[in-house]
């Protein structure tokens, strides 16, 4: 049985072995890092220092496989290693733990109940009151409730598993979001109205005043903490949303904090600084390790050590004197750069009352005297009026969190967090973001100062203003207006870009040139809001503007289009049927044959089927909506993946076995040979195209997986292509180059615009213009002469850098037959003569043996696609794509990746050269290996 199922048996064991090997490497490196921090005095390791080493370049990137906190991962596996003498986990029972319904309900009751705390009443010494605090996380609940801890320890499950069981048995357990909102008194509303009317009058008299306002405020960024305005808590589904519940989570949980001051302006002189006048850290966590709840010197943290300033004093909010000094700096910098004194917008009543702008003081500096009206004194509780700074806090804090999360939650000290916060609130501020907020301020002031319920149409944006709450409030209208304003700004900029490319000769615009301008820095990043292709977005809104004279969409009916079941079934039948094409038979002029090609995308099907086009146009729906309806009415419509695999003949299997045995003998005689091998091959990256080895197609669920279906999609769809040559090695001299000896583009698309199927000069593309080389000649695979010249370069570079001639590993039979390494030629250069055995001549159809290069192609192409997708699919020319491909296959190659592939080659050769089904345990990795008898090696090697 082992012999009859050799392929599947080998594949399963090998796949398992590949993941086990990676897991073993990660654990081994974790134990090594832990051991390197062992303290002989205390007999303990330092898991946080070990984590820093674990993430260093010496680990070759293995830390990226670990999803939990690195210090916890290291500590656990080091403890396991000390206890059992191995890196494997202890054997576990296959039966999952089942928490009884009674215990789960009891735990749910504890979680929903929250806990009561005693709080002191300010101003009344000795007086206290009881306050209910709901639990916001399971960790917090376990920390405060011994009963809940006992239930968890009884079953030995994680908090998440316990919570999952609680939800399963108690549908009454929910998690809600509690929010706090300030309710304005009548006096506060009138104060806001008066202030807005005053500002409208001042700006009407001096429009430039808007660009002399500096918005100032202080804020706190807390990592691992909770917001004081909004917090999620567990409670009963039937419970009211209590407004008297404390919003601050349990104070024993110590977050990492950065308290800072920020001042921004829309003045043009600060364009290069993204509008930032001043960023200054005031206080924050420095030497506290949040994870261990200890100071970095190892001592326990007390209540007084929750936050520390930069000077290791207890952190506090900025004092009035400190704020005055900061405003003195802001005014000095602004006046020096613009020649005008700023208008200060500060949302802090106590600071406004204390600050006298006619005499701003700062120790060691001369006082500043400005007119009193330069302190705008905005009303209390008015962050909407101070939007210039509040929007920066609202947008900057998610950017900080995103950067922290991209580091796999490894930000563990205040010093690391401060660097990120400074970066995101200075250079990371989106360009023109402050200017856009300031541009909408006058409209906001009109909304706030208008009577409640009054409606009018704003002349600038064309949208209806609706003050649907009490006069002086702006929450509902402002929220609605914010999204509409952003949408209007994006459409306006799209129309401007389109108009700038208008050709008076043809009467048409160039949507692709407009798209390039749309994405430029002049747009202030508005293109990031558009999820569809920019050229399509621009073309649609410019057409709408020319036709109706506005940027708003035409009015639509609220009723969705319903595609009839008959039409949906007819469309499904067309999609499943595919289409037949006539192909020429090579070598027989005039002879043809019919070939079935299934549709791989709806776009392709619509392109080839007039009947399907007619159904789509009948209802005016998108391809995705039509496809969704087809799936709903026809369960027989599926999308499958067709794959092509080469099946070895007996002679090919024997050839692979002989080659592997020969290489094992050569490496045994000269182990350094492994690091003198240079893996060479050419490859093509195709954007918007399909793989020739694997393609997804639509067909009937009952249809067999046909092996004779053409894997190449319809050739009328022109993708963007880059054809390149790559040579890599594991030699230590190429460590700084990530193992890359040579990257060279051979051919590819240059001036073809994939989206419009036209050349960039506007002319239609013919069949012969599908691919172009760098010299604007038709692209083709690298010729034997060109390949010989490339190998000449590789050998010259390698010999010059290492002092040895390389062993060439090339997976191309025709090139191997043509290349004579005893006399490598290149025009204009002296011939190279190497021993004949330096051409390894690997067997045909053996990408697994040439894994050193194949893994680079396999890993590099997803990196190219990821970078293209991060650009919102806006890579539309070969020139743009070539830059990305070069970057990802040179500097973007993971360090030590080639060396790791080479290190596993000898084991792969043993597997291939061993009889089919033979098993043995590899001494180095400890895993069970299964011989393949010349067949495919481990899946990870291909």
What does this structure look like?
This protein has 942 residues and is of the alpha+beta class. 39% of the residues lie in helices and 16% in strands. The protein is built from 28 helices and 28 strands. The strands form twelve sheets. It has a four-stranded mixed β-sheet with strand order 7-6-4-10, with helices on both faces. Strands 21-20-18-24 form a four-stranded mixed β-sheet, with helices on both faces. The protein has a two-stranded antiparallel ribbon with strand order 1-2. Strand 8 (288-289) and strand 9 (294-295) form a beta hairpin. Helix 2 (47-54) packs across helix 3, helix 11 runs antiparallel to helix 13 (433-439) and helix 15 crosses helix 16. The chain is globular and about 95 Å long. The model is unreliable at 1-16, 240-253, 287-315, 474-481, 704-717 and 751-779 (pLDDT under 50).
